[in-house]
Amino acid sequence: MTYGREDNTMQKKPKVTLWSILTALCAVLTVAALVATFIVAPMYETTVNVALNAATYRIIKGDTDEDTNYFTSDFASNEEREAYEAELCATVEAEGAALLMNNNSALPLASGAKVSLFARGSVDLMYGGTGSGSVDTSAAPTLKDALEAQGIEVNPTLWDWYTSESVAGKYSRVTPAAISDALAANSEYDVNEAPWSEVESNTSSSFADYGDAAIVVFSRSGGEGADLPSGDNGSGVEWTGPANYLELSQEEKDLLAGLKALKDAGTFKSIVVLLNTSNALELDFLNPEICGTDYGIDACLWVGDVGQTGANGVGQILSGAANPSGSIVDTFWYDNLANPAVTNFYSRPYPNNADYGFIADDKDNGNQGYYVVYQEGVYLGYRYAETRYEDYVMGTGNAGNYSYGTTVAYPFGYGTSYTTFDLSNYTVTDNGDAFEVNVTVTNTGSVAGKKTVQVYFQSPYTQYDKDNGIEKASAELCGFDKTEILEPGASETLTISVPKSELRTYDANGAKTYILDAGDYYFTVANGAHEAVNNILAAKGYTVESTEGRMDADGNANLTWKWTNAALDTTTFATSEATGNAITNLFDDADPNKVSYSPGQVTWLSRSDWTGTYPTGTFDFALNDDLAAALANTQYDGSEASSVEMPTTGADGDLTLASMIGADYDDPQWESLLDQVTFDEMNLLITQGFHNTKAVASIGKTATKDENGPQGLTAALTGGASAMCYTSEDVMAATFNTDLINDVGRCIGEDCLAMGYSGLYGPGINMHRTPYSGRNFEYYSEDPFIAGTICAAEVQGIQSKGVYVYLKHVALNDSESSRMGVNTWLNEQTAREIYLEVADKAVVDGGAWCTMSGFNRWGATWCGKYQNLQTDYLRGELGMRGMSITDYSGGSHYMDSTDALIAGTEIWDSPTPLHTEILANYENDAYIVSMMREATHKILYTVANSNAMNGWSSADRLEVIIPWWKLAAWAMCAVLAVLTVICAVMLKGALKKKRANTNKAS
Q1: Is the confidence at residue 801, as pLDDT, over 50?
Q2: Contacts of residue 606, Cβ cutoff 8 Å, sequence gap at least 6
Q3: How far is CA 958 from CA 139, 405, 824, 936, in A?
Q4: If 0-12 CB within 10 Å is exposed, 13-18 middle and 19+ buried, where does residue 384 land?
Q5: Model confidence at 42, in pLDDT bands (50, 70, 90)?
Q6: Strand partners, 428
Q7: How many other β-carbons are positioned within 10 Å of the β-carbon of residue 597?
Q8: What secondary structure does DSSP assign to 37-95, as a single string?
Q9: Which one-letter DSSP state was computed for residue 832?
Q10: Cα–Cα distance measured from residue 184 to residue 563, given in angstroms and rounded to the nearest whole number
């Protein structure tokens, strides 16, 4: 009996340990939930709302019969839209891919051909790049799918081996982590091709049965946050990488050598190479005289990044279902280091950084101590190669022993076809403000095809130019068009208008505006820039014979026309056609030879002395106190606080944003509407624009969703749904087809309309300064004319569906190395004629609403707070109507909100309260509040003219609601708090019982 009583006592022993653990656990969880809900979550509220697509308002409908479908779809269903877009993407690839070589008519493949696909790239195509422009291509067709759809049989043994887990695990391409933004990431690219010995030992028994062609796919990746390694480029910085990623790896060379041996043995009839990259490979391997080895390659097709269904377009070309008509939009070099921009492409540190405390990879403060110099000036890509070639032929400009034939593999604008064409009846007419170019294209071959006609001009290089530091290229693209499909023997006459403004050049030192030089101007039509220069040389009387072989081919003088401008004109183009404002120097702050706080002097590359001015990769640069001060994160000192009257905020009123649909920007009613907006509403609208614009309850403004889209709408970074991924932008440009790319734009707009997006971060408008830029897939070309003209067509299409584009990244964000704040130094002529020209065409001709600023600085001033760029140029010269947004600015103090508001930036791509808290300190600063009001005006004006207003009438009202995830978080905090209290009560009872038992036992 005693034993039984003791056991009963033990069973009633208080559970102090259990309740202690539960109380502590619940308390910790409660504190964590409270911190997450009330401290952390508010910092990232915008991000969470975007990612969860959480509603933050509801519409209270008014009594109206207004038609509120302002922008509508052209498609009857989503299925119809998606099917159309799948075909469209394939068409873009089929028209943009460029046939570079086709010896022995290796292409197209014979009907029913049996082929073998080689290299890991054949089973793992580059559909697009990485980072903000990345898209989901999990359902995209493979190259095998595309070929089989055209009746081509693909070697299954080889395919299965390359796709096996063991091979994919060992030999997939190596790329840096997405958006790493660390200089060391440049060295993390690796081709990692499977060794030929393994390919041969595991699959060679299958080759003979699939020997009609060996198709080799060389792929290279690019992406946001890192540039591609070039190896030693002469700059002396270590983040150029240990090897050149854009030359063939040893494994790739071994693969070609192995295939050549098999071809010689009769196993394969031909070798076809596909260049699956937006970063141009060095093409020495195509020419035995250059590389020293004959790899037996019969055909080479550049396909770029193919997009979601572009592989089908590749299949159509290879099978002959489509005839290639693309023309490359970059110069393809035998050795990329022959491009003078490469030497100074990567960022480099000022040697005395330590004296000022500047460090590498400093995203918050914008890499103040790192710089890049555009020393090549206007001589980018073909503007260098062709101009130095002409000077070498003519014996001018100290061109040295320049060997074009061993430098350039394929010139800008080159592309061939399965058929042949003849150009005739070439005429040019001066119509006053423009030249009208007419030419007849005849298909002289045996199969149907399209032909691109490219118009180039040459401006005279005068003594005035030399005296005033003006540089001129030997040929510049100024117009183009493309025929319809021409059957054999058929002809089509194209008429191409070239505005006379295309002939202007910028004189930064003399007239300080755009001028038209006196002298002879030549026009020609040609298959690429090199043929254009040879035609012009022929018109000047030069031949291969007369130049003792310096000229590499006789040109066609019949395809040239000369126009003479009698006198230097410094007035016709000194005024903006878009705004009527005078045009003069704006960017001397970025010229180290002019700015007062210069880090050192620069000798710009000049055709007056090629050898003496060629970039060497070294600069005598150093920081100084004035430059360091200019690099400070904040310049505004509050001295203007009382210089203007404090704007009205939070006034009573019943105006809504819907009532402003279609109203002019200067409509007086805007002032009454803006009076209703509170300071806090303006602050949130301006500073928390991460993939959205905030709702503004006081005026019934809905929140909008804005998303990435250089290749098509993609929500990869925010976890939302994506739409069609089109080809890389260089393939779009290589179509030379504005109607086709306008349709691409329209369909991107349709996707946005269908998925509830009103703004698009794109198109990308930076330049292919070198092949090593990580984001070349997002940008069109090395040439601003083709880039700007194609971009304008795409923009018009996108915005036709009520989607405002943000052209990105304006401007000079042409590399990824130290991109966050790198000091970019260049002269004004280069800035205007090369790097701003795309924005010019996209805004003036395309009507682009908005821009996204670059991470980089112009000299010492970040793009977003460079008033000469944001206000004087974009608005004052181009007439941009909408808003300027920053690139991602969540933790970047150098993207200062006060300075940038003053400069003309309106909205911050930020999910954090960093800039919100900064502006909150200026609530009593009338000058900053007036800047906030103007920024709010531009944001609201943009949204009022977008598809965000679909479904809204002037009678509707907006009511702010708490998003569901906040309610859930609050509920979770409450439940955890209650559980903590319950556990604490139980613990208290257990302790009390324990003490009672202890007292009883004693």
Answers
A1: yes
A2: 377, 469, 471, 613
A3: 40, 67, 45, 18
A4: buried
A5: confident
A6: 437
A7: 17
A8: IIIIHHHTHHHHHHHHT---EEEE--S-------S--SSSSHHHHHHHHHHHHHHHHHH
A9: I
A10: 52
Cβ-contact 329, 100 below 8 angstroms: no
Complete edge-to-edge strand list for the sheet that includes strand 857-858: 348-349, 370-373, 823-825, 857-858, 861-862
Are the C-beta atoms of residues 698 and 957 closer than 8 Å to each other? no
Pairing of strands 519-526, 452-458: antiparallel
Mean pLDDT of the region 391-406: 97
3-class secondary-structure state, position 405: helix
Pull the structure tokens for residue 477.
């693209």
Q: pTM for this one?
A: 0.93
User: Residue 20 corresponds to which amino acid?
Assistant: S
Each residue's pLDDT tens digit, 320-374: 999 999 999 999 999 999 999 999 999 999 999 999 999 988 888 888 999 999 9
Strand-pair category, 408-410 with 332-333: antiparallel
* E strand or H helix that includes residue 170: helix 165-171
Tokens of 87: 């075909």
In 3D space, the residue among 537, 576, 595, 529 whose CA is nearest the CA of residue 379 turns out to be 529
Phi, psi (rounded to 5 degrees) for 864 = -70, -20
Among 384-388, 562-566, 702-706, which is the least confidently predicted range?
702-706
pLDDT, tens digit, 9 for 90 and up, residues 243-287? 999 999 999 999 999 999 999 999 999 999 999 999 999 999 999
Query: Which residue has tokens 């090897």?
Result: 243
Reported as a pLDDT band with limits 50, 70 and 90, residue 60 is confident
Q: What is the 3-state secondary structure (H, E, C) of 860-922?
A: CEEHHHCHHHHHHHCCCCCCCCCCEEEEECCCCCCCCHHHHHHHCCCEEECCCCHHHHHHHCC
Which residue stretches of 415-516 are H helix? 463-467
Token pair belonging to 979? 């559980």
Read off the tokens for 315. 């299949």
Reported as a pLDDT band with limits 50, 70 and 90, residue 6 is very low
For residues 751 and 712, what is the distance between their CA atoms, to the nearest angstrom? Answer: 8
What is the C-alpha to C-alpha distance for residues 117 and 122, in angstroms, rounded to an integer?
6
Other CB atoms within a 10 A radius of the CB of residue 912 amount to: 20
Express each pLDDT in 641-685 by its tens digit: 999 999 999 999 999 999 999 999 999 999 999 999 999 999 999
Give the whole-angstrom CA distance, residue 966 versus residue 959: 17
* pLDDT for res 54: 80
919 in Cβ contact with 900 (< 8 Å): no
Instruction: Collect all residues with Cβ–Cβ distance below 8 Å to 56 and sequence separation of at least 6.
Output: 49, 695, 703, 960, 961, 963
- CB of 266 within 8 A of CB of 207? no
